[in-house]
Amino acid sequence: MLPVNPGGHAAYQNFVATNLRKYYPNPDSFSRTTWDIIERFWNLDLSYTDELLRSKYSVFGPKPRTPSCMQRSYLLSIDFKIHSLTDWAAQLKINPLYAILSGFEFGDTPGVGTFYDFLSRLWDSDSPNLSSHLRPAKEKKIKSPVRKGAKAEPLEKVSVDQLLDQLESTSFILEDQPYASLFKIYHREFLSQSIAKGLIDPSDLSIAGDGTPVVTSARERKHPACNCSEKGITDCSCDRFFSQPDCDIGWDSSRDRFYFGYDLYMLVAANSESDLPVFPLLNPASKHDSLGFLETWFRMRSFLPDLHVSKWLLDSAHDAMPYYIYCRKNHIRPFIDLNVKRGIKVKYKNDFTIGEDGVPVCKAGRKMRHDGSELSKGRLKFRCPLASRKYGCSCTHPCSDSKYGRTVHLVMKDNPRLINFPPRDTKEWKKEFNARTSAERSNKREKIDFQLESGRHRSTKMWYCRLYHIMMLQHLDAWDLPFESPLRKLIWKVA
After folding, report:
1. What are phi and psi of 16, to 5 degrees?
2. Confidence (pTM)
């Protein structure tokens, strides 16, 4: 039979109120933290999940569990820090609160297999991984950087420029992605709700991006897929079977060590009130952030076309000229930290040097002074720091006969990497760039507060399910709910 939720969200609310009154007649049974969770889930409407997944259930056989109840229960397991579905299924059988908030009658709760079947219906692919388990035996290994805290060099043969051209000409279709159903539920029931509540401004969005390691196991697990060992060949070059084919070995620069797993690249609404996530992508651990951002950005742009992104806030790993050229072409203001290893000081108009903050330095070695900007012409004006209109230039070796002193116009098209609006040495630029840490705070919420890495899964399907539901909880926590909710009043009235 098709899973039907008669009465929808209102029926769920009545069910929770009735059963809480039955099993917990005294509101003092719960701590304030537990009350907050109860009220958030009591107000959470997951009717779209029932609508979306209805076609994925057979019309024959016994009546299945309601999809919204299964999803709500999975969200609760993450919120209550119970990482194993086996442990959660056991908790549902002994803890009435968990069963009631999920929407199940206490004593009639789903088993472990039912949860795995539900999560499989959220994954739109017959394979639990994105790539084949069979891969070549010997692959190029990533090298640890010489300098402590530095990023490792990318393994990819493609450059930023080449990948950018490739992705610009690629059309991404959501229905072709295995995480399409997960994304639709997240978009419809959480991201759109945060936009409607005014937490995210879709007309003027600042995007902060950052990659973070996700450790999935202590080591890489593989074994030969051939029978060469039976023939006495101990060092064959045949393909190996990898248990986690979408993962590889990467370098964690924050801990200065190698790890096995994914590189999670998360795009965050930097100008939102609660560092809300917008779109994620799980890449192999060896993926460099400069390439991971592009892979994530072009998918987000295709799947969320209504979001108007006006600013990029990125760290020095993204300091590549193609980024600035793309931003200039698409009317995006880049706030990207400079990578000093790629060279900064350049000659400009033969006798001036542009410093690391994008400000010209005169022949005498003095940093020039701002003197306005012409955004319509795409240029900035600087003048001699020792010149004044009243007394002229006090430099012993003036580089101009003008009383006003030497002036220099920096044109953005000459070097969009160094010449920015606003300039890098201004308070406005620094204030905008400081919001980039929202990506790091969002990653901290996912990895520390919601314990993303505690899933211990072996398939990309399960990691995406866990990741998207953690993002849902991030949005849910950001929604302001009244302390004196109808549910609290109902319980107190009964008490």
Report:
1. -65, -45
2. 0.90
